[in-house]
Design a protein that fits this description.
4 strands; about 100 residues; alpha+beta
């Protein structure tokens, strides 16, 4: 499983949804699990993004599908990053 960082910004519609139904956040997490993505950690943050999510997915194609699916709803904009564990990164640098 690969690790990914998903930075998300709510649209106006997304902010309305979260304000009226904050439990929707957990519902979306369950939807992600059905698509093969596990939410490892999730934070609401201040600044240019509203949420930082650490997720695990079997491959880039799966996380891409999730990003397109969530983005197509019109409630959130996503920036998804591949996260490489430091041990793995430094090992590759040596080899």
């Amino acid at each position: 499983m690969g690790t990914y960082i998903m930075l998300s910004t709510l649209t106006d519609e997304g902010r309305k949804t979260v304000k009226m139904r904050p439990e929707r956040i957990k519902e979306v997490n369950k939807e992600l699990e059905k698509m093969g993505v596990k939410v490892v950690a999730q934070y609401a943050v201040l600044g240019p993004y509203d949420f930082v999510n650490v997720v695990e997915a079997p491959d880039n194609e799966t996380i891409s599908k999730v990003s397109v699916e969530l983005g197509s709803r019109g409630t959130v904009q996503l920036l998804t990053l591949v996260a490489i564990p430091i041990e793995e990164f430094t090992h590759k640098l040596k080899g």
